[in-house]
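TICKET: design request
STATUS: open
ATTACHED STRUCTURE:
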């Protein structure tokens, strides 16, 4: 399953958030979506599954326009894990994860649905909380429940908005390993918005950097160079290698304007990169 984004644009009223975004993610690939706060990561994810309707451009899932899929079919194909949820109805862990099976079996879950829920609960180490109200859980536990609700539906595309933000170090690693294995073992197309550059470099096959609502660069983790990090984030960083992995150490704020910001100062600024 391939996800293609072509010339996507979105604005909140007169405020442009995304402009001319082109991106492709392949089956069995985990693509990290990186960029500072306000760069458009969450809005892009929400535009891919029609939480937001793009103002322009096209999103295709295996060649089919997302805009032409009905909501049930879209929910079967695309799983989404938000950063947080407000105003949810009281429900247990089991009931919440079971909601992810609804596009497949409606309101009457069968044996296959229940088996999928039980397997997902075990996979996420949530068995001790099966009957607990989700509202009574910690932030990290609630995030794992939201992840389980997305995984249990076995979608072809998995969109995750900062799934590790409320987790401690151990569970950050556990969740990223689980997501990576799920994506590769099942041939899922995964896109994860994430702030931690080291987690992205370790677990993502490729990364896409957003700056001011546009794609600044796309490629393997080796695109995370000191120059790129300075340009996109406005910080100085050192990139090292440890046991075959890329290790990024942030040092301090950059003292000069970032290349990404300077790129919008005029059409002749050749430093802007849109690979």
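STATUS: resolved
RESOLUTION: sequence designed for all positions
ATTACHED SEQUENCE:
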């Amino acid at each position: 399953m391939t996800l293609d984004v072509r010339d996507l644009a979105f604005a909140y009223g007169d405020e442009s958030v995304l402009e001319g975004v082109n991106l492709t993610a392949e089956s069995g690939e985990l693509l990290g979506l990186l960029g500072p706060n306000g760069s458009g990561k969450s809005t892009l994810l929400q535009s891919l599954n029609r939480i937001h309707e793009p103002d322009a451009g096209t999103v295709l899932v295996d060649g089919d326009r997302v805009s032409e899929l009905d909501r049930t079919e879209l929910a079967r194909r695309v799983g989404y894990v938000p950063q947080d949820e407000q105003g949810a109805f009281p429900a247990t862990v089991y009931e919440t994860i079971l909601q992810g099976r609804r596009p497949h079996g409606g309101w009457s879950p069968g044996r296959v649905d229940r088996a999928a829920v039980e397997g997902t609960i075990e996979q996420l180490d949530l068995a001790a909380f099966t009957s607990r109200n989700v509202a009574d859980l910690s932030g990290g536990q609630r995030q794992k429940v939201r992840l389980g609700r997305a995984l249990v539906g076995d979608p072809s595309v998995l969109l995750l908005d900062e799934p590790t933000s409320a987790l401690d170090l151990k569970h950050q690693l556990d969740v990223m390993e689980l997501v990576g294995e799920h994506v590769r073992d099942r041939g899922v197309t995964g896109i994860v918005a994430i702030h931690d550059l080291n987690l992205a470099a370790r677990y993502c096959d490729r990364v896409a950097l957003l700056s001011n609502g546009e794609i600044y660069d796309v490629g393997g983790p080796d695109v995370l160079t000191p120059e790129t990090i300075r340009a996109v984030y406005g910080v100085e960083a050192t990139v090292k290698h440890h046991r075959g992995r890329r290790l990024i150490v942030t040092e301090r704020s950059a003292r000069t304007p970032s290349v990404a910001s300077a790129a919008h100062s005029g059409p002749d600024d050749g430093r802007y990169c849109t690979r």
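CLOSING REMARK: The first strand starts at residue 3 and ends at 12. Residues 3-265 form a domain with the Rossmann fold fold (CATH 3.40.50.300).
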